[in-house]
Amino acid sequence: MPFKISLRNMLIAAAAAIILIYIAPLGSYPLIEPDEGRYAEIPREMISSGNYITPMLNYVKYFEKPAFFYWMNAAAMHVFGENEFAARISSALCALGGAAAAGVLGTYVYGLTAGLISGIATATSLLYFAIGTLNITDMPLTFFLTLAFVSFYIANAGGKKRYYMLFYFSCALAVLTKGLIGVVLPSAVLFFYMLTAEQRKHFFSPLSLPGIILFFAVSVPWFYLVCRDNPDFFRFFFIQEHFMRYLTNLHGRYMPFWFFFAIIPAAMMPWTAFLFALCGKESVLRAPESGEERSAAKYLFIWFAVILLFFSFSHSKLIPYIVPCIPPAAVLIGADISRMAEGEKWHGFAPQLLAALNCFLAAALFYYAYTGEEVTSSDALPVAVKTGAALIAMPLSVFCFTGGGRKRFKEAAAALCIFSVVFAWGMQSAYGVVAPRRSMKEVSEIILKESDGKETIAAFDEVLHGLSFYTKRRVLMVGSPGELEYGSKQPEGRGWFLSRKEFQRQWYGGKKSFILVAKNDGRLDSLLPKGASRTAKRFDAGDYVVLFSGKRRSGR
């Protein structure tokens, strides 16, 4: 008798492994600049000052994001301490929560097997996993949006009106995490979905007075308090950071309209082949088997398309913006793979696309491991072996279980999920290579070792938030204030943002200082011309050089 694998048991085991891969390594690599340092330092300063209303970064006001994510990280730091694990655990839990929510929706519409595959496909998709294991705001936003969309569908399709309260609550938390986008995107998705033929007569049914009251009760108090304490907050946050960011090139993040259309296939790896297979005539998207599946397919497609188009029209584009597109795509993929497994038939050229795309990416990874300039082959090759082997194993398992007339489609589906987890495990190991090169931890350790606590720590022409986090000290900014421009003009910024000439006067005037400067781009020579510095000690740390203007402590 051929060996049989219980599909559901294997999927449950894969889901358990995902939890371990997301959580266990979070504290094993340093914070990556600039985002992780920023979103660790703000809650650290909240804890230090006791002010949880006005966000401060390097001890000046920072109004680019609302406060909820900072509160989440501050709570984690109260529990786990001010370290990398605490800085990342909120984002990782949100990622797991979003994958679970996608799995719930997949189960609700398409059955348990489809739901399990949906959750696994969400959690192991390249961009989702990468963002879910980093300390940035995009994953909490994705979680709250996913929870909102899932709760809305269950409330609307299942007639379980109490879930509308969860929908409004989730939207409120999304607003508190990243601003108006937390209500704009759900409103747009619901608007277009309720215009479909099946929903038009129920167009106003999602409106719930208790839900609306709950939304404002959760979302408004912090905005009221921060505006009360900071009269300029409203203009900066809503006008500059919302409308001007979306409609202009204010932040210099312009990309062409098609940018995110090109990103999505890469973001969905190693499941991209099944994303394209949804275009097949027999897929759950094009050939739903019931009215409920037809309605769900429309809803998931609108959810995906509205977010994709919204950000594509924006003049400000960053890759993490598109993460909320992944859960609805993964639910459709999970349902489609489940249909293939049950029907014992592949469609949409899924095996061929899987072999072509996965092998191409695996080859690209090995090529980069041997030729990439940023990391050595000895560091990059282990990552390429893990991820590349998983990518190649996915089409191989499909062939082994279903090639040559074999009909073990459920085993093939289980193998796809298992190897996708191995792929995520390989990607997780990449942080051990990348993070030390883009972190301030090593630099901070050098400074703390040499410091007696009285020196000024300065950075030239870069805002390096991890330097503040790891040293627990305020950093003097020399040259461009970068994203701290608004805070630099406030009273608390006075004396902490200097021009190059102002800093030179301090340096040559005898003030004890550390100055951090990037190597190999001419910055050091422009700040302190060769032969003219009073440097008592120079330290090299990765891409940076640390200059110390004072004498070393005795005994050092």
DSSP helix count? 24
Summarize model confidence as the mean pLDDT: 90
What gross morphology would you assign? globular
Structure class:
mainly alpha
Residues in helix, %:
55-70%
Tell me the β content.
5-15%
Strand tally is 8
Largest sheet: 6 strands, mixed
Parts with pLDDT < 50 across at least 5 consecutive residues: 552-556
Describe the structure.
The chain is mostly helical and 556 residues long. It folds into two domains: 7-434, no CATH class; 440-548. The chain has 24 helices and eight strands. The protein has helices at 7-23, 35-49, 68-80, 84-110, 112-124, 126-132, 138-158, 163-178, 181-194, 209-229, 233-247, 259-267, 272-277, 291-313, 326-343, 350-371, 377-402, 409-429, 431-434, 441-450, 465-471, 485-488, 500-508, 523-527; strands at residues 56-57, 60-61, 456-460, 475-478, 497-498, 513-518, 537-541, 544-548. It has a six-stranded mixed sheet. Strands 1-2 form a two-stranded antiparallel ribbon. A hairpin with a 2-residue loop joins β7 (537-541) and β8. α4 (84-110) runs antiparallel to α5 (112-124) and α20 (441-450) packs across α21. The longest helix is centred in the first third of the chain and has 27 residues, at 84-110. It is globular, with a radius of gyration of 26 Å. 48% of the residues are buried. Residues 552-556 have low confidence and may be disordered.
